[in-house]
User: Which sequence fits this backbone?
């Protein structure tokens, strides 16, 4: 069982930056693939980024590629999402998620993830 708690959301102007953190409980964090998803009002939850167990492999949605960076620190049981050059369309609730089936590789499909955090709001507005 893994419990996830996101933090770092807030209000930022277009072009600004935020770093989201997701702290995980449990001793098996390093064995989980980790992902970030987001959900804007009235829209489906969408994939943002994912990272392999040791951080060697990452995957990004086209909409954030080149602007967002996912990373993890297994010693701190934490995964991060650095968001730069933010746009109003990045406004959403951001969720981190953990996939315990590390052998199958990174996936963009939310149904593949076993554990979810409660989400943190990111608002990009002037």
Assistant:
């Amino acid at each position: 069982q893994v419990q996830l708690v996101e933090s770092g959301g807030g209000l930022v102007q277009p072009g600004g930056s935020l770093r989201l953190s997701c702290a995980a409980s449990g001793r098996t964090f390093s064995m989980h693939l980790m992902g970030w998803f987001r959900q804007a009002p009235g829209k489906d939850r969408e994939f943002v980024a994912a990272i392999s167990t040791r951080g060697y492999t990452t995957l990004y949605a086209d909409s954030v590629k080149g602007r967002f960076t996912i990373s993890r620190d297994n010693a701190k049981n934490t995964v991060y999402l650095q968001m730069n050059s933010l746009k109003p369309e990045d406004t959403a609730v951001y969720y981190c998620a953990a996939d315990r089936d590390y052998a199958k590789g990174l996936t963009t499909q939310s149904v593949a993830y076993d554990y979810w955090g409660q989400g943190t709001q990111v608002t990009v507005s002037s």
In short: The longest strand covers residues 92-99. The chain has no helices and eleven strands. The two ends are 40 Å apart (CA to CA). The CA atoms of residues 32 and 70 lie 14 Å apart.
